[in-house]
Amino acid sequence: MGTRDHSRLNRLRRFAAWVLWAEALTLALAPGGAVLLAYAALGLLGLGNGWLLVAVLIVSAGLLLWGLWRFKRPAAAEIDRRIEAASHLPHRPFAALNDMPENDVDAANDIWAAHQRRAAAALASARSPAFNVQAVARDKFALRGLLLAGLLAGLVVAGPQAPLRIAAAFTLPDWPFPGPHVTAWVTPPRYTGAPPHVLAKGEAVSTLVGSQLTVITDGPTRAPKVKIGKNNVITSTLSDTSHRADATITGSAVLTVGPWWHRLAHWDITAVLPAAPVVQVIEASIARGNALKLRWHVADHYGLNALTASFKPVGYPQALTYNFELPARTGDGQVLVDLSKSPFDGEPVTLTLTARNVADVTASDRPAQSFTLPGLRLHDATAVALVNLRRDIADDPASIGSAAEPLQHLSQQPPSAIDPAADVQIAALGAAIWLRNTNVPDVVARLLALALEIEAGPDFLPAQQFAASNQALMAALQAGLHGTPPNVVTLQKLLKAMQAAAARHIGAIQAAAGQTGTPMNLSALDQLADKIVQDEAAGRTDQAAQELKTFQRILSALQNARPMSATEMAQSKAANAAMQAIADMIKAEAALLDATNAGTATADAQDKIQNQLNATRQSLTKRGVNVPSLGPAGTAMQTARSALGQGDLNNASTAEATAIKNLQTAAAALAKAASQELSLNPGADGEDDGNGTPNEQSDPHFNPDRANPAAAIQQQIIQQDAKPAPTPTHQYYHKLLESAP
Fold it and tell me: Closest by alpha carbon to 634, among 658, 667, 651?
């Protein structure tokens, strides 16, 4: 027989040897494995415990050792017989391959050759044996089926708790002798304000991602292994017998202390992500001009880091985002957002309110409706052209390169007369864009600054200087609310700087409009500032805060002052004269009411007051000023005159009281109309005042449209009275605020 045939037989023998080895080891391990599977079924049913596990392990180990002791290495003859049995070859043909003939005669050789041919034919049909432990023959009582049924029943009963029950069933019990002491605690992130939580033995722990875990072991000379999931935690030595391990919780895992055969402690830790803020926009509407009235509600477990209102034009997803920072507070909030400097004037924009809490988790809310922003009210043609170019760049930042050419054209042929310095700045900005030496936000900001400078004209620098002096003065007064009011020298220095800057600012405005006027006397502001400092020093902080609001509102009126037109000045004169006349009429009507009650009033006295009222109405009507309540006042006076003529004192007094009430309403309406953009009767923080204008706490940079500074201040101080003051009081205020009307 050739080498080729023997090679095939050797391969068959090696494979058959592996099969016999596997069968023998399976039979050796089967009893112990069956005991462990039976215990697993009990564990799924919730019947496992540490000491029962120890008993099961001992029994399983004994059965394993017994099986290994009985294990015998498969002999060569057993391997051949297994191949012959698998190939259905009788008479042990493989043994004949090693036979040798006894006689070397021809007949014997022929017989031997035939014998060898039969053995070779048997080898050709030989095949590898299959793995077979003969379970049916060995398990006469079919215990394997009962074991499988028990496992299936345990899985059904345990359901989703199956992994936890198996883990608990195969957890070794605590050693009966004292071991190392383990102390562990979890410290939540600082932003929660929660104290550390000491872990009880075996407790299921739920904590925020980012919490700090600390494990301290006392007792062993060597630090036990501490693991979170599959990751080892580095330990540090506190003393010869004390060790510490620190880790940051990044996800759910099992914390174990000690090796598997001697668990000192273990905990199931569930990591929870920090909650996001809850943001809701309650109201968002254009309140007046460019002011967006925004009301919202924010709830958060940890506190806010930032609250931002973002605006973006509709239809331009690539456009710049115009952000406005809001007070980062939870609860209800409201504010008037000044959008006058937004680059999206004349375009519909969407609003997104985004809150970011101290855990760095954000949430947003966006109203369904959009808003169209009117933008800056510019009159200079060059300023308007710059603002339009600014809007185009903000809508499509990729188009910034094409802005260089129109800027160069504007610098060479501006549509209006502009200062040479502004001309140079426009050309320089165009060159910077051409050379790609700038970015989009910088270009948008510089275009706005140029437009405002050109629009302001000669008042640009004086207005900036006045704003700086106001800021320094307000900072000093506000510091007094926190216990550090300015001293007399500092206050006087700041007031003088403010008054000088105000004079330059108002003078530049009047010069640009071709108007002249008497220099303003702001001694009333000096008195109010002194009063604020006195109240702060005396601890009357609430009163000082209200006075400070009034002071800031007056400064805002001066900062944003614009020259009045001839028509507006005529209306202002008529309104001021009418208020003085109405104050006189109220005083006279009140005296007439006293005389009526005393029985000494005459119809002629009422007729005289009514004639004064008619003259006042005619003057207001001529200037285009309509005060509706003056009509009912005249009707009431006519009724009172008729009643006095008939001697009906009761009806006369009633009509006179009605006339006084209508005159008071008319005076209040005139005061409100005269002050226009401003009121010294502010609403609550973040709310509109009586005129619908924003409170300074809402937006200290809100720009009113137009106002005559001196007249506005006068009317604001007068308006502090709930009812029109007597004529001498008005005259006193007017004297304090001497100015050309």
Answer: 658
Which pLDDT score, from 0 to 100, does residue 701 have? 32
pLDDT at 513: 63
pLDDT in tens, 680-703: 233 333 333 333 333 333 333 323
Cα dihedral sign for 560, 565, 570, 574?
negative
437, two tokens: 């030496």
Tokens representing 683 are 């609403």
* Euclidean distance between CA atoms 679 and 673, whole angstroms: 10
The predicted model scores a pTM of 0.52
Please give the CATH superfamily to which domain 176-272 belongs: Immunoglobulins (2.60.40.10)
DSSP string, 376-397: -----HHHHHHHHHHHHHHH-G
Q: What's the rounded Cα separation, in Å, for the pair 653 and 595?
A: 9
So where are the chain's domains?
3-155, 176-272, 278-372, 381-459, 566-675
> 278-372 adopts what CATH topology?
Immunoglobulin-like (2.60.40)
- What is the percent of the chain with per-residue pLDDT over 70, rounded to a whole number? 77
Contacts of 696 (CB under 8 A, 6+ apart): 549, 552, 553, 556, 682, 702
In this structure, of 288-297, 343-352, 588-597, 684-693, the range with the lowest mean pLDDT score is: 684-693
Is 643 in contact with 658 (CB distance < 8 Å)? no
CA–CA separation, 718 and 716 (whole Å): 5
Q: Which residues pair with 694 in a beta bridge?
A: 688
